[in-house]
Amino acid sequence: MLGSKAWEPTAAHKELVQRLKDPTLLKSQSFIGGSWVDASDEERIDVHDPATGETLASLSHCKGSETRAAIAEASSVFKSWAAKTGKERSQILRKWFELVRDNQEDITTLMTLECGKPLAQSKGEFESGISTMEWCAEEAKRVDGDVICTPAASKRFLVVRQPVGVVGAITPWNFPFSMITRKVSPALAAGCTVVLKPSELTPLTALALAELADRAGMPRGVLNIVVGDAKSIGDELVKSDDVRKIAFTGSTRVGKLLMAGSAATMKKVSMELGGNAPFIVFQDADLAQAAAAVTTSSYRNAGQTCICTNRVFVHPPASRTLSLMVQESVHDDFVKELVEAVQKLRVGAGMDAATTHGPLIQHSAVETVEAKVQDAISKGATVAVGGKRPEYDASHPLSKGSFYEPTVLTGMLRATIDMRCFREEMFGPVTPVFKFSTDEEAIQMANTTEYGLAAYFYTKDLARAWKTAEALEFGMVGVNEVAITSDVAPFGGVKHSGQGREESKYALDGFLDMKTVCMGLGY
Ligand SMILES: NC(=O)c1ccc[n+]([C@@H]2O[C@H](COP(=O)([O-])OP(=O)(O)OC[C@H]3O[C@@H](n4cnc5c(N)ncnc54)[C@H](O)[C@@H]3O)[C@@H](O)[C@H]2O)c1
Ligand SMILES: O=CCCC(=O)O
């Protein structure tokens, strides 16, 4: 949110400074060419704590000219960074990883305060992010090429892999740490230089990372962070011919804009976009495990995770036959287990150790969730639990927070797939439960979405597991498992959920070009 030109530190800001072991990690400027710089105009951007609505910090608000400066810095040092040996880059990245690891407490505090997620979840994200940093620091030493068997005795073919150039990285607010490490670490390991635009809602974590990169001895200009106006910064990154790759995580809408814009300069793109994850509970599933898994997956980060369970399908629908009536209880038993688990979630501020469920990122997100829930109710859904904002009186410290209660919607028939909660990414703490009658129908309903990021199902039948995993049109499938994220496994989607993969042994591939060298032997 744009703030006033004059910034008077708030009580929340002073409290944050007190909380940090190293308050110099709290920055209010952008990091360009190894220096902390103010924007050329005086406009500021305020960062809020979504649990209280209080202003945590006010930052200089950059636009096009600062972005051009950052691109120029990244371009000017690209050749020297690329020319370092993998081992030299690895040593700097390793040092950065160590400094970040040593500052876990401060970084997770910043993450929780600016994005709202419970501290335990910030720690989980932190573990995921530093694993990526460590992995990529190691991989910097392994940017190998290839020798191809030749069809002609007089020549040899080799493949060398070279960094693509300057990378424009654009990241969202819901994972203010790990979405950065997933792009910046492999890009730097591959020998690229980076201009990063973090979300204007959660820039503090990103800026702390820049400070630690500087302390780690990252050469000036190799990593630049520009905070400010999304469109101006994005437009500069996209139109610049010096930027050779856009690495984006965010909404499908913005991803498509960036991809279309990148065509003019024929940039590489990697797009980690929205999801609409189905979760199928087959009749042979362990219901208690499935209900616990839906609770974990659907309400993680208050439902604001790209791989959150968005639609649950439970076998079977109402039937008059005795055998199916017995099976009908699978649905009812599952809903009972789920509702009981959801009732145990504790809504509150992320810094409170008892909290399992934090606020949404801002009030407009709560309004969008409310509209989707109302849409479902108007089409026949029943609220089994939640379905509203928590009722805090005006004197309550969280009364200005952007909270929505964890919600389960039931009573959904196949006829209700026109509901917004079926078609759209909810990005809030709401789980709609639908019924299905055959495996084919469940798979078909699961695939009835333009998205294709993550999908989950629970079954004990091996044949059904193989068949379903192969039939689901998603980039990642969890079978009797929802914790599918790992630094060792490729992460990414198909269809409108994007292209390219982050993490794993493939992490650096998107930041490298292949060059074929054909060597004539002269005979
Ligand atoms: N697939 C994944 O790995 C993954 C991971 C996390 C989040 N997401 C998706 O991200 C979305 C939530 O994040 P969000 O609300 O921050 O998304 P968003 O698309 O609104 O914003 C993402 C980033 O793009 C920037 N941006 C916005 N408009 C821009 C423009 N015109 N030009 C350049 N940059 C622009 C924002 O400032 C932010 O930094 C959800 O759809 C979620 O599923 C996907
Ligand atoms: O929202 C996207 C990131 C999810 C994850 O890392 O598990």
UniProtKB/TrEMBL annotation:
What reaction is this protein's catalytic activity? succinate semialdehyde + NAD(+) + H2O = succinate + NADH + 2 H(+)
CDD domains associated with the record: ALDH_F5_SSADH_GabD
The keyword Oxidoreductase is annotated on this UniProt entry: yes
Q: In which pathway does it act?
A: Amino-acid degradation; 4-aminobutanoate degradation
Aldehyde dehydrogenase domain mapped to chain residues: 36-517
Q: Which UniProt keywords apply?
A: Oxidoreductase
- Tell me which species this is from: Auxenochlorella protothecoides (Green microalga)
Residue stretches spanning the membrane:
none
EC number(s) for this protein?
A: 1.2.1.24
Protein name in UniProt:
Succinate-semialdehyde dehydrogenase, mitochondrial
| Gene Ontology molecular function, alphabetical | succinate-semialdehyde dehydrogenase (NAD+) activity
Would I find Oxidoreductase among this entry's keywords?
A: yes
* Top-level EC class as recorded in UniProt: oxidoreductase
Active-site residues, record numbering mapped to chain: 272
| Any Pfam family the entry gives | Aldedh
Q: What family does the Swiss-Prot or TrEMBL record give for this protein?
A: Belongs to the aldehyde dehydrogenase family.
Q: Which PANTHER family match?
A: SUCCINATE-SEMIALDEHYDE DEHYDROGENASE, MITOCHONDRIAL
Q: Which PROSITE patterns match?
A: ALDEHYDE_DEHYDR_CYS, ALDEHYDE_DEHYDR_GLU
